[in-house]
Structures are given as structure tokens and as C-alpha cells.
Amino acid sequence: MSRITAALRDHAYIAIGVVLTLIFVFACVTIGKNEVCPTGAAIRPACKTNYEIFLQSPPNEKGDVLAGLAGSLAFLWIIITVLQQSQELRLQRTELRGTKEALSQQTILLANAESSRKASEVGDHIVAQISSLKSLLDRTDIQKISMRKPSPGSPKTNLNFVTQKWINHNFTLPLFQIELAKFSKAVRGYRALGFIIIEKVELKRWQEALLICGSIMDSIDYAPASVRELAVREEKIGELQRTLESVLDPELWETHNIGLRKT
Predict the structure, then answer these.
(1) CA atoms within 13 A on the CB side of 135
(2) 260: alpha, beta or left, given left = phi > 0 and alpha = psi -120 to 50?
(3) If phi over 0 gives left and psi between -120 and 50 gives alpha, with beta otherwise, what is residue 146?
(4) pLDDT mean over 173-180
(5) Which residues pair with residue 197 across a beta bridge?
(6) What is the pLDDT of residues 46-74, one digit of tens each?
(7) Is residue 171 over pLDDT 90?
């Protein structure tokens, strides 16, 4: 039943055209059967139907009548065709609008899925970088540096940096950042008093850690919220990055090779 209703709705103007054509034909037949009696005719046989008059008329009159009838039907069906095409175009526009909306929704869904996939990949990469950063800093070679006054015979002073052994296997990046800041502050204090570093300090791993921190912070905005929470609030990668940038000052670790007093 629904299919029939849909078909009638889609071809309503054609149905109207058929009905009007049938009415037109019925009207022509009815008019053709009507009798026309000459004025003043007193006897019945003098009356003729319009159909009989049409058959007895000259060819040019027959042509005029047929042309008029055909032209009327043609004009009717031109109007029906225009209305039908207008309806079809309207239906096509509605369908295209629906298709466009569906494609737009599909595009949004695909974009969201792609964004989620990329965010997940970035998150996994950041988690792996944090793990690599912990492994790198957990085994840092810097445990102490030797400093002394530049004057001859000055005693040597050793500054110890807290490492994993000192922390007793409770290594965390925030704790490392705190201890590194303390260590840097102590070195700067001695340097301000005129002390010089007399043994080369290996900074390669701290430099690598700074690169990893920079990579994490550059991509943190594209990671899921849980990973941002881990990197920024729990592991405090941003604070560690700033501390490493401050510590890795070439002038701070400048080494002077001078002789030590033997004791």
C-alpha cells in the first residue's frame, strides 16, 4: 500500500493529466452526440448531431476541429509535463540535500575517527618517551664534580649529585627535577664564590633528556587528556625541561685544567 501511495505521490501530475484527458474526451463525445436543429425546422429528421455535421463538413473545417482538439490536449500535457518535471527536480534537490547532509556527517565522523587515531598514536609515543626519559635519567653518570679556588694550593671540594642509589630505588622525574635544581643552585653558588670546575663534566645524557622533553611538550596538545595529565601534572615534564635548559649552560660547566695540591 505504501508503494502505491509513493508512486501516486511521485506521479500525481501525470494522474491529473490522465483524468483531465478523459474528461476532455468525454466532453467531446458528449458534445458530438448533441443534436443541432436548423432554425424553423418542423420535422425531427432535419436535426443532426454535431458528429454528423463534422463528418459532412469540408476537409478544411475537419482539419481545424481536429487541430483545435489536438492543440488543447497538447497544451494540457505541456503544462502537466512542466509541473511533473518541476516536482522531479524538487525531489532531486531534496534527495541531494539529504545526500549532502549524510556525506557531511560521514566526513565529520571520519575526521573525528582520524583525529582520535592520531591522538592515540601521539599519546602512545609520549608515554614511550616518558619511559625512555626515566630510563635515561635513572642511570645518569654525573654523581659528583670537583671544584676549587683558582689560587695555587687551594683544596678540592666535591659536590655530590643525588642519583638512583641515593634515592634508594624511588626514582621519579619530579624528584629528579628537584634534586637537579638543588645541584645546579649549589654549583652556581660555588661559582659565584670564585670556584672553578677542575674535572670535565659529562652532560650528554642531560642534553638527550632535554631533547626528549622538548619533543614531548611540542606534541602534548595533540595527545589525549589522560596523557596530558600524566606528562604535565604527574611527571612535570615542563618543569623538568625548564630546569634542564637552565642547568645546561656552557659557562656553568666550563672546566679549568690546573694542577691540584697533593695531599
Answers:
(1) 6
(2) beta
(3) beta
(4) 86
(5) 147, 255
(6) 678 888 888 888 888 888 888 888 888 89
(7) no
Which residue is associated with the grid cell 642509589?
A: 165
Q: Which of 85, 67, 87 is nearest to 77 (CA)?
A: 85
Which CA distances in Å does 65 have to 24, 76, 131, 157, 229?
A: 14, 17, 98, 128, 91
**Single pTM value for the model:** 0.58
Burial class (CB in 10 A: 0-12, 13-18, 19+), 23: exposed
Q: What is the dihedral of CA 77, 79, 82, 88, to 10 degrees?
A: -80
> Cell 478523459 maps to which residue?
22
pLDDT tens digit sequence for 125-142 = 999 999 999 888 876 555
C-alpha R_g of the chain: 50
The pLDDT assigned to 240 comes to 93
With CA atoms as reference, report the closest residue to 213 among 142, 138, 134, 141. 134
What is the pLDDT averaged over residues 155-166?
Answer: 70
Spell out the SS3 assignment of 95-114.
Answer: HHHHHHHHHHHHHHHHHHHH
Calculate the dihedral angle through the C-alpha atoms of 248, 250, 253, 258, rounding to the nearest 10 degrees.
170
